[in-house]
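ugh ok fine here u go
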Amino acid sequence: MGQSVTARAHTNIALVKYWGKQNPTLIIPYNSSLSMTLDHFYTDTTVHFSTDLTADQIMFNHQPADAKTAKQMSQFLDLIRQRAHLPLFAAVETMNHVPNAAGLASSASGYAALAAAGARAAGLTLNKRDLSRLARRGSGSATRSIYGGFVEWQRGTNDIDSYAIPVQEFVDWDIQMIAIVLNDRPKSITSRTGMANTVATSPYFSAWVKTAQAMIPEMKAAIVKKDINLVGRLAEQSAMQMHATTLSAVPPFTYFEPETLQAIKVVQTLRQQGVSCYYTMDAGPNVKVICTSRETPQILAALAPYFSPEQLLVAQSGPGVSYR
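structure:
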């Protein structure tokens, strides 16, 4: 088989969260979600299908992938092989410029890059909508990383109509995020396990789905208005409602750590002082602060007594998937 193909995809942080799968196999969510793609965090993946291989060879950050990761990525490559009618194994090299499995959406950029590089290396010509559908099968949030800027994942009901669409792909107003990396260790409870437990046991889950779905048009309107305060308030509300479902699961669990609450407290205090800043979290302890570039220095100064400079990463709106 021919060429090696390298693709880059950036991670995204959901402003309106996705939490819970109504079809775990196809990864069809219970509710739509809306995210912002970030420039600071990304994955580069190279794929080459070869007649010389007797199994997939998957390298992850210059090391052989662990057995679980390798199996998941090979199963995803099977989807590409089936579509391309290609009975060949692949050599995959992935460089992940995102702390892995720590709530910074490493799987989003990872599977979006694998979808893009793998499909093209297999000879498929897919538009972005088809790539979004494909990436979704690896990781739900990956469906949004195909696009830059603000992106909506329309929940749909099946493999055909569940995909992402751009809301504002080229962001021309002042909004960014400060990622507070509290730790970059893998989570003790994976997103997939946490979602399944929440869906099965939380008495609040149905209310979460209804509220999250209703928030999508509100968030889109706030983006059109370029209203960072409304965007921030809605994002904060969505994050806390999502995390409330984990606390109500049986058994209850949380991704919060003591440093998480410290970061939240700093943001709340700044806001009481008139600074436009809001926090959001995915399934992990790390906090993201939504703010403007103008107020970023003041926010960083307030966080500095509690977190090292290496823990405070400033990100702006990032691009969609590209080829290197």
